[in-house]
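Please study the protein below:
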Amino acid sequence: MTFFWSSWITILSFGCWLFILGVLLMVLKFKPEVEEDGTTGHEYDGIREYDKPLPKWWLVIFFGSIVWGIAYWIFFPAMFPKHWDGISTVQVDGETVPWTSHNELNSDLEKNNKVFTDNFEKSILAQAGASGATKTLASLSGMQATLRRSETPPADLQTKIDEATAELAPYVEKLAENPNALKVGSRLFLQNCSVCHGSNAKGATGYPNLTDNDWLYGGEADHILATLHKGRVGGMPAWRDQIGEDGVRAASEYVLSLSSSKGSKSNGELDKTLVTQGAAIFDQNCALCHGKDGKGMTSAGAPNLTDNVWLYGGEREVVRDTLRYGRAGVMPQWESKLGNERIMLLAAYVYSLSDRNTAAMKAPVATAVKTAQAPAQ
């Protein structure tokens, strides 16, 4: 709010208060002439008017509300908010700060989160045999607070935060075997993740299935933690301008030839001439991310093209559209929204969903998804 509007509202408030107070005092001081029977002489429809004092209980409430209003102006930034913070304070992030509705919300969230984290440490970590995570969580929380507060944080601080996050991976695996942890994790998933991945976590077109064993950025506990903490931004560039429509058709045919079942049955027989032409285009333009064998790279978030798992669909025209126009996907970061403890529970739940018995889990480079670089699981 600008100084003009804050000043205008303050002056208007004071003016209304003074006007009402003045009218009341004037009424209290005014003493009309009364007749012998105590009436003022006014009569209407047989009813005569008396001059009686205002009820004391009403006066107490009225003046009390004025006192309360003055106290409110003193305690809270009601007068000239840009220049008066009030004397009321709250605790936010370990510091005493002036009261604002925003600071009060953050303070209440911290109090509620303290209750949750205490219960998490005593009831969930302890039961799962993962109490060792407590020290790492405390260290991680401290470094994150330093990063938020500092205008020029140490150059290696983010690296240390990432390392501390990765240290939680073994404890996430333990939580994935604990029924209570999974119960809380499932609730967190339904509240925050199901809108994209579905309540059954099987995803949808453009949103990864979390119950299989195909991962863009890796499906181990440390990979899932990193994805949830920082999010992912995937991008498959558009190739129509670089390789032309003929190149798009040829490269798509080659990509379909790599799939374990040659894509959808609706694709029919592959054009061998286009497959040969597409192989050269793939080696020149696509192998950098997807690898010469088409198995992708988790470090780049490039999907495995040799399985039959597709994020946007494996039909011929869908694959062509991916090459023509590209794909873009964003997995939001949850670090600032959920906090470290809830992310651990959510990561444990997602980790427990994956089919970890498939041979694909043994691939050292890329067990990924579908036709494009897209949001990580």
In short: Residues 297 and 366 are 5 Å apart (CA to CA). The longest strand covers residues 39-44. The first helix runs from residue 3 to 29. The two ends are 42 Å apart (CA to CA).
